[in-house]
Amino acid sequence: MINDRAAGTRVIRTVLPAEAETVTALHARARATYYPEGLPQDGTDWLAAWRSAIARPDGHVLCVVEDGRLIGLASFRTPQGAPADTVKLFQFHVDPEHWGRGVGTALHTACAEEWQADGKLTAVLDVHVDNRRAQAFYARQGWVPDPENPAAEGDHHLNLRFSVAGE
Length: 167
What we know:
Helix 1 (20-32) crosses helix 2. The protein has an eight-stranded mixed β-sheet, sandwiched between helices. It has helices at residues 20-32, 46-55, 103-117, 132-141, and strands at residues 5-7, 10-14, 59-66, 69-77, 86-94, 122-128, 144-145, 157-163. The protein has four helices and eight strands. The longest helix has 15 residues, at 103-117.
């Protein structure tokens, strides 16, 4: 498990169960930026989903805390049926008020360090097709289109792959 990493007043650590509501609110603020018509109401109980992710013994939810405020988060685990050396980044969000300040890069670095420590070779994720900002961020971090899961016509997400070892 990742140890707390401090950089100035910024700490990257594991999310606490008591922070589920704060995580859910940050998630909603970040997602709202790439849905011009507003967040879709698909019936998902995001508070319950985040509580479940935080409680999973086989997963990790990391957060970035700066000056006592949670400003970034990442959730990842090996998905069911995937090879043991593969990890999926299910959620990765930075509070829009903190974009452009290195929060995402620091959080991504912490994720990659955890993946290496856990023996993962490959990370995968899907990103919304309208989220150009996230796509550019992931490209800068070394993510590439996943050749094993190309997007089909009409897909709402693009599948990306990252070599954890940097190869």
